[in-house]
Each structure stands twice: as C-alpha cells, then as structure tokens.
Structure to design on (260 residues):
DNA sequence: ACCACCGGTCACTTCAAGGAAACTGGCGTC
DNA sequence: GACGCCAGTTTCCTTGAAGTGACCGGTGGT
C-alpha cells in the first residue's frame, strides 16, 4: 500500500470538527486502511504528527474492539500488517456521512463561530472525523 | 416540551460508544431539542447527571457555533428557551446514522472487546452518539 | 565494530474536559 | 423573615487522553 503523505491536508480543519470516531486518530487510521493492509511505519507517514506510542495504543484499542487485525510476520526486518475487519470497514459508511455533513455544513459552523461574540473558546464544540 | 426523563436509558452504553458529536453532551441536547424548544431546567431532567456548569458551557459553545439559539424572556421567574437552528437540525441526520450503525454493529464491538485478551482498557476506542 | 531498520516500550509531563458543591439575585409566597 | 424558583456563576478538584524523548533487541549491511 502506498499512502499519500498529504492525504490529511493540514489546512483541513480535521481537528476542529465536531465529530469524533474512537480515539483522536481512529478514523484516520480506518481511512488509511481503506484500500488494503498497511504496516506500522507506513501508517506513520500520513499521520504525520502521531507518536509511535499513541499509534500503538490506538491500534491496540482498535484490535481489541475488532476493528483491525494485527498480523506479525516472522521475517527480518520484522513486518507487521494491520488490516480492517468487516466491522472496521463498516465504519467507512459512517465516516462518509460525517464527511458529507462537513462539506455541506462545516463552513457554516466555522463562519458562525468566527462571527460570534462568544468567540473565545471555552469548549470548541469538537466533533471528530477527518 | 415534555421531555421523557428516561429518554437516555442508563443501560444504553452511550458512554461506551466510539462516536462523539461535539462535547460529551452535545448530541443528547440536540436530541432533546428535536421536537421543539426547551428551557434550561427542562434539559436537566433527561440529562440526569449533568451539572449546571457543564450544561451552560455546552449550550454556550453550541450557541457560538450556531447550533442553537438562546432566547431570554424578561419575565418572572426568568425564562430562557433554547431552540435548534437549521444547522443544529442538520446534525439529526448524522446522529441518526450513528444510531443506525450502533444498532447494527455496537453489540459486535462490545462482544469483541469482552472476549479480547487485551480487555483491560488502555483506550476505550470511544465514539460518541447517544 | 558500528550503524540503521523495524516495531515497538517506558517514564514523565501537560492540558483540558468534566464533575461537585456552594453561592448569587431578583421576585413571589407563606 | 425565611423559603423557594430559575438560570445560572464561581471555585476547586479529578481524570485521562495525548504528547515528548529516550531506549530496546534482533538482524543485515559495510
């Protein structure tokens, strides 16, 4: 799998989104695995700012929940592949819905936020979906 | 508006859901306002465990983002009504999608989690949608 | 002998969300 | 004069997600 290092546009306000699927990175990982398995280091490329610690934590949680499978090959150098399960793939539709909402309404929300007199942020009304 | 105090079943693992819309309570508030405006104290009924502080914070964030409007009537005792905007109402579809996913797949996820050897939780793979 | 690669782990810190409890203030009532 | 209602505010505290940076162990290359 070749993952585009730019697949998560830094300009795209993924972080400002009022949706969240799983942990902070879960939805992005699901998207990374959409077109087939990937290995640990491959995932780190598009997920530019993730630390290995957080990536393992997230992947472990996803594995525990049956969203991905982890396959370690006894080779050298070591190789580990992560792949979406059917359950994990079922999240794709949801992520799609979130993205649709975002492209239709997020600009609205952001514009309103900027205009608002309550503009200082005591709670960003986060949502998550990259 | 009469809000059913039991509309958020304590048995329903809303808290375990791997989705989240806005702050912790945002989606529930949207649901509470689905059928018309409600006032501060009315919202506190179904949202049993919310503190007034958190409720105001959440409502302010939602108002700032254009999801709800706040209307204060100069009466006695004071009355304040919160109502969904069109933008806020647009979230209903999303919440519906999340609920559909949940009723189709959440049991799966939870079962997997329980079965898993990684069962102790270093990251619940949260999602939010009540 | 040294280095890099892979897929992590470990120890530590920061930061913000969320919760608990008490208080406010104008008005009406008993 | 005390009490209660509504819609909050204020202060304090706990928790846990997330980030930083260092380190590890086996192998293959030069």
């Amino acid at each position: 799998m070749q993952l585009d290092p730019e697949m998560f546009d830094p300009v795209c306000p993924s972080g400002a989104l009022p949706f969240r699927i799983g942990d902070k990175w879960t939805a992005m990982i699901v998207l990374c695995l959409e077109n087939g398995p990937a290995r640990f280091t491959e995932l780190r490329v598009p997920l530019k700012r993730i630390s290995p610690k957080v990536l393992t934590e997230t992947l472990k949680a996803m594995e525990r929940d049956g969203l991905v499978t982890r396959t370690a090959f006894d080779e050298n150098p070591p190789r580990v592949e992560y792949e979406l399960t059917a359950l994990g793939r079922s999240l794709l539709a949801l992520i799609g819905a979130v993205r649709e909402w975002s492209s239709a309404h997020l600009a609205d929300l952001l514009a309103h936020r900027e205009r608002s007199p309550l503009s200082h942020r005591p709670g960003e009304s986060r949502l998550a979906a990259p």
Chain B has a mean pLDDT of 85. Residues 86-115 of chain B form the longest helix (30 residues).
